[in-house]
Amino acid sequence: IKEGDKVLLKIDKNTRILNAKCHSAGHIIQGIVENSYNMRAIKGYHFPKGSYVEFIGEKPDDLSSFIVDINEKIAAFIKQGHEIIAKFLKIDELKKINKNIMLPKSFSGNNDVRVIIIEGINLPVPCGGTHIANTNEFQLIEVTKVKSKKGNIRMSYNFV
Q1: Residues 6 or more apart from 96 whose CB is under 8 A from it?
Q2: What are the Cα distances from residue 43, in Å, to 78, 90, 139, 144, 154?
């Protein structure tokens, strides 16, 4: 394909919605964990097979109780129907709103960055992924496993 060529692009609606739900679920888990525990998300894999969010911070003593607590908070949150908003912010503006944001050195003050905001749960976070519009589009988001990996806490999840 070269510049100026006409192409036909087809998007599989079901696959796109599945991927958007997966990505949004990861951000919801991030927000709930960061607001409830002394942990901060550092990495995520938001694809239908093998979804996880990885955190640094204090590992809970009782992982079974931790999983139950997080899943209860997720269930209550998604039922409330919160908007998921994508927008662009200047980097300097983002740094003022989210003081703990870690950005690559290549991001400079006047550039725009696409962020995701999940109403009622998180500050703007840089994200280029697809997302659903509202948390009430989920039937379920469930943390299924928590384990330590190289000193970090990895939370695997499923969603419907």
Answers
A1: none
A2: 22, 23, 25, 17, 9
Task: Say what the pLDDT of residue 141 is.
Answer: 97
Beta bridge mates, 145: 156
Nearest to 54 by CA among 68, 39, 67, 44: 44
Per run of 10 residues, the mean pLDDT along the chain (length 160 residues) is 94 95 96 94 92 93 94 96 94 83 70 91 88 95 92 94
First and final C-alpha spacing in the chain? 37
Q: Are 45 and 112 in contact (CB under 8 A)?
A: no
